[in-house]
Amino acid sequence: MHNSKNFIPFSFLILIFRFSNALDCSSPPKVIDVNQSGQGGSFTTIQSAIDSIPVTNTQWTHIRISAGTYTETVFIAKNRPCIFLEGAGSSSTIVQASNHDTMSTSPTLTSLAEDIIAKDITFQNTYNNPGFAHANAVGILPALAAKVEGDRSAFYNCAFKGVQDTLWDRSGLHYYNNCYIQGAIDFIFGDGQSIYEKCTINVTTGIDGPIIDGVITAQKRESMDSTTGFVFKECTISGTKWKAELGRAYGPYSRVIIANSYLSDIVRPEGWSTWGKSEENLVYVEVNNTGSGANNPNRVKWMKTLSEDELKSFLDISYVDIDGWIAKQRKANNF
Fold it and tell me: Which tens digit of pLDDT belongs to each residue from 127-146?
């Protein structure tokens, strides 16, 4: 059915309000090296490198992280913007921790600042992963790999690994390109305004994990006027052992759009859940997808169909790249 009542176009006044005070990080970037051996006067931990950056920094700082497994939590405070974290590849530079229980205290990466880039790094929370066999594990608990809430945050070739609540895309304009996101329960959640492009979404608790049905997204859009939502374009959604819903409504106006993507047979036939919310206010859209998990005739009947113009407004990069910040960031940091 066609229902566009929840489509709200961007207004000129909203854009002025949001971006009139946007930070313009200066370049060329200052370079800091992180190496576990400490060679060449570099820092041995990622956090110590971040802490060396002056607060209210306005110059790009490029933190180059050598290959290795860094067992630490990484915290980027709101007053430390303009940071570019670059690893040696997501299979080579791994940041891990095992904090758990609460969403606020468990993230391996917490990024609160504006203008943050991460590239070629894995962020993982090992608590629920049976391969790590934590002695104190008492069943699956919230254990986040990352929490992201600053505007103009971009992730390239990164991996986020967890089981429950892997990636808290809490708020802000975010762009994820060619990333790998792994989990089983609400593992991409929050109220961000985000595009996930050419990403792999893998539903699993690990090779020895319990066989349970899961949920991929839990988007928290809270009003009809809100512009937030999760957009997945040219992605691959797959997994092992069991089925998963594409999403359930964390907020009363939850919005998720999946387009031009491959959906394997791990997707449950109904696809979506209201989670107790009013179905008429939810915006769940699937369009031009392929694979055995796509185009199921048993999908919920209250899925939305957008007009061509409405769909374009979400799939176009301008949905998150409102003032061209993505290209500006890449140019300033030479990639």
Answer: 987 555 544 455 688 899 99
Is 24 one of the catalytic residues?
Answer: no
The pLDDT value recorded for residue 101 is 78
**Rounded Cα gap, residues 3 and 305, in angstroms:** 6
Residue 202 lies in a domain: yes
The Cα 124–Cα 181 span in angstroms is 10
DSSP letter for 317, please: G
**Residue 222 to residue 35: CA distance in whole angstroms:** 43
* Domain annotation covers residue 266: yes
Which pLDDT score, from 0 to 100, does residue 130 have? 59
- The one catalytic residue in 120, 186, 191, 321 is 186
Mean pLDDT, all residues of the chain: 91
Answer whether residue 1 is part of any domain.
Answer: no
Q: Total structural domains in the chain? A: 1
In a domain, 123, yes or no: yes
Range of the domain at 282: 15-330
Q: Measured at the alpha carbon of residue 231, what is the angle toward residues 233 and 117, in degrees to the nearest 5? A: 90
Highest mean pLDDT among 52-61, 207-216, 239-248, 288-297: 288-297
Q: Identify the CATH number of the domain in which residue 222 sits.
A: 2.160.20.10
